[in-house]
């Protein structure tokens, strides 16, 4: 195969992975709108959701351009089925209680931060620019979710126990972050994407620091780690999200914002 | 027929286009108007988005088109460019002064300083736009729009907004 075509196909896949993770996580967090424990938190969560969806728009729009088949951000978001989505399994996990949502946000944000920092130096100028913009938003997500983890972990006995349980439950989706494949390898080779081992080392470091501050622990995972997002193998939850998210544009294909 | 004087005329016209969410600021103050060029008889207006999810960008594109059409210019297109990524460092001094007068504290740090500070939780206190005091505190990093954070001034006892470093 022509190497440029190979590179383009890999970049398209890679952009879907980043864009879908932002889109699905953004959609999940938006479910909190009107339900957060306090008004400020409602505003914070919807702002974080907006950041993710904004990032998804840029990434999917660019993915459509790279693919070159006339698909845009909307076609990609609304007219693909679950098996064609490439979001991290973590992003589609249900909101659960507020602690579950914050742990999920924390684990993803401390992954996104070193990832987007590295991507802002990508050999692909467009991806680098999107990443440079996104990383500034991700920094706020890291701060916000870390603050909550510390507050809940170092709070009451009940909040401590609950948030520790959230960590124990969600940890099985962490290997999926770092489970690189041939797409990652090809793009790492071209200095477009960073080496996931380096990202994992930074992720570990930040997680450990925050866990110590919060008085929480990262337990040994005894059950099997769940992976597969890079090949479109999702948990049962993604289908339900898509059913809600895609209903309108699929039922009314010509619907437009006025 | 068309030359650089037309381009500067268009630039001048576009300095009237306001940010719909912070109407004291124009797109020139914000630094989002990147370039005006004449390419094959069409004026290409390059703008760059601010915050990724900012819904004002669509309105800004429409307002640009409206101003140009009102002034009899038809042969133009507005193009969104991503690179280099916009930063609040590009907000002009005049823009910062306008923000302060409007009651919004301008971004208090450079993007780079801010990025370091936010991760360690050691952000500098933001000067109050009403009384100038620095004994203020952050009440919420997220506000009414993607670009604003909420603070409280312990000197004049007023809440105020800050245009977030980005
Ligand atoms: Zn004051």
Q: In words, what does this structure look like?
A:
The complex is a heterodimer of chains A (258) and B (166). Chain A is mostly helical and 258 residues long. Chain A contains eleven helices and no strands. Chain B folds into two domains: 3-86, GMP Synthetase, Chain A, domain 3 (2-Layer Sandwich); 102-163, no CATH class. Chain B is built from five helices and seven strands, in the order H-H-E-E-H-E-H-E-H-E-E-E. In chain B, strands 4-7-6-5 form a four-stranded mixed beta sheet. In chain B, strands 1-2-3 form a three-stranded mixed beta sheet. In chain B, helix 3 links the parallel strand 2 and strand 3 (76-80). Chain B is elongated. Chain B starts with a helix and ends with a strand. Classes of the chains: A mainly alpha (258), B alpha/beta (166). Chains A and B meet through helix 2 and helix 6 of A and helix 5 of B. Zinc ion (ZN) is lined by residues 128, 130-131, 133, 153, 155-156, 158 of chain B. The site of zinc ion has 8 residues of chain B, from loops.
Q: And the CATH topology of the largest domain in chain B?
A: GMP Synthetase, Chain A, domain 3
Uncertain runs of chain B with pLDDT below 50, 5 residues or more?
A: none
> What's the total count of β strands of chain B?
7
Tally of individual domains of chain B: 2
Radius of gyration of chain A: 18 Å
């Amino acid at each position: 195969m022509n190497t440029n075509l190979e590179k383009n196909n890999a970049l398209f896949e890679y952009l879907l992975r980043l864009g879908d993770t932002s889109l699905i996580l953004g959609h999940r967090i938006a479910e909190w709108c009107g339900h957060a424990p306090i008004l400020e938190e409602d505003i914070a969560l919807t702002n974080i959701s907006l950041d993710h969806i904004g990032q998804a728009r840029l990434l999917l729009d660019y993915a459509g351009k790279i693919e070159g088949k006339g698909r845009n951000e909307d076609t990609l978001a609304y007219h693909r089925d679950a098996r064609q989505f490439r979001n991290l399994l973590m992003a589609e996990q249900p909101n659960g209680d507020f602690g579950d949502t914050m742990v999920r946000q924390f684990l993803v944000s401390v992954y996104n931060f070193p990832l987007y920092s590295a991507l802002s130096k990508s050999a692909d100028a467009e991806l680098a620019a999107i990443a440079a913009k996104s990383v500034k938003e991700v920094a706020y997500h890291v701060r916000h979710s870390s603050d909550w983890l510390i507050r809940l972990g170092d709070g009451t006995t009940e909040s401590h126990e609950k948030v520790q349980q959230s960590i124990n439950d969600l940890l099985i989706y962490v290997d999926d972050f770092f489970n690189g494949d041939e797409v990652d390898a090809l793009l790492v080779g071209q200095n477009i994407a960073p080496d996931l081992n380096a990202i994992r080392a930074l992720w570990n470091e930040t997680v450990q620091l925050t866990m110590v501050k919060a008085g929480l622990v990262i337990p040994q995972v005894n059950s099997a780690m769940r992976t597969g997002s890079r090949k479109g193998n999702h948990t049962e939850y993604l289908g339900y999200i898509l059913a809600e998210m895609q209903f309108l544009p699929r039922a009314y294909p010509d619907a437009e914002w006025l | 027929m068309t030359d650089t004087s037309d381009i500067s005329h268009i630039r001048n016209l576009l300095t009237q286009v306001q940010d719909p969410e912070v109407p004291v600021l124009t797109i020139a103050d914000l630094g989002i108007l990147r370039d005006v060029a004449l390419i094959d008889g069409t004026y290409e207006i390059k703008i760059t988005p601010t915050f990724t999810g900012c819904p004002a960008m669509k309105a800004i594109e429409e307002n640009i088109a409206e101003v140009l059409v009102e002034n009899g210019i038809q042969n133009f297109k507005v193009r969104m460019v991503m690179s280099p990524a916009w930063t609040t460092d590009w907000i002009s001094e005049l823009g910062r002064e306008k923000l302060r007068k409007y009651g919004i504290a301008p971004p208090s740090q450079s993007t780079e300083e801010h990025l370091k500070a936010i991760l360690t939780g050691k952000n500098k206190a933001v000067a109050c736009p009403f009384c100038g005091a620095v004994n203020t505190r952050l009440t919420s990093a997220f506000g009414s729009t993607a670009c604003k954070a909420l603070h409280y001034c312990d000197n004049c006892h007023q809440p105020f907004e800050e245009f977030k470093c980005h």
